[in-house]
Write a structure and sequence with these properties.
173 residues, 60s Ribosomal Protein L30, Chain: A, 11 strands, 22% helix, globular
Length: 173
C-alpha cells in the first residue's frame, strides 16, 4: 500500500508541523518551506487558508486547558487563534489576494453532531466577513480507537509550486 500524503511529507525538512493550538503560515516562494501538516485530529478544529502564493493553518484545541473553570475558555481560545490567522494574512496581504483565497474548516463530529457549533460559528463568521470562500469538512471523533494511516490529518503540499490540500488523505482542491 502506498504511503499516505501525510506520511510522504511529514518528515521532510521543508515541512512545518502545525502542533496543537498553533497557527503556522508559509510563503511558497521560500524554498525552505513548502508543506504544512497537522495530525491526530480527534476533537480539534483545523482551519486552512490558501492562495497560489501562501498558506496558513491553525490546529485549534476545543479547550486549551482542562484546569480552567471558565466555561467560555474554548470560545476565547478559538477567537484568539482566528485573530492569529487574520494577522498572518494581514502581514502577508500581497500573498493573499481576497479574490483568490480558499479556506477549509475541518471540524469534529461526535455521535452525528457538530462537536462545538459555537466555535465553528466563530470561524465561519470571520471567513464570511473577510470574503473568503470556504468548504466545511467534518470528521468523526474516534473514542478509544486508533486512526488508520492518513486519517485525522491535514496536509498542504506545495512542492509542485501550487498548493494541494489533503484532508484525511483525500485531495480537496
Amino acid at each position: 500500500m502506498a504511503p499516505s500524503r501525510f506520511q510522504e511529507v511529514h518528515n521532510l525538512p521543508t515541512t512545518s508541523n502545525v502542533m496543537l493550538n498553533m497557527v503556522v503560515g508559509i510563503e511558497f516562494d521560500d524554498p525552505r518551506h513548502n508543506c504544512l501538516v497537522a495530525e491526530n485530529l480527534n476533537g480539534c478544529t483545523a482551519v486552512v487558508i490558501i492562495s497560489d502564493h501562501a498558506a496558513v493553518m491553525a490546529n485549534i484545541l476545543p479547550r486549551p486547558t482542562i484546569y480552567d473553570s471558565d466555561p467560555y475558555i474554548g470560545d476565547k481560545n478559538m477567537k484568539e487563534k482566528v485573530v492569529e490567522l487574520v494577522e498572518f494574512i494581514s502581514r502577508h496581504r500581497d500573498k493573499f489576494p481576497l479574490y483568490a483565497c480558499w479556506a477549509w474548516v475541518i471540524y469534529a463530529v461526535l455521535d452525528g453532531e457538530t462537536g462545538l457549533p459555537g466555535q465553528k460559528g466563530i470561524i465561519n463568521d470571520v471567513l464570511t466577513t473577510m470574503g473568503i470562500s470556504r468548504a466545511d469538512h467534518p470528521y468523526s471523533v474516534l473514542v478509544g480507537r486508533p486512526r488508520p494511516a492518513g486519517q485525522g490529518t491535514v496536509v498542504i503540499d506545495a512542492r509542485s509550486g501550487r498548493p494541494e490540500v489533503y484532508i484525511d488523505d483525500l485531495r480537496v482542491n
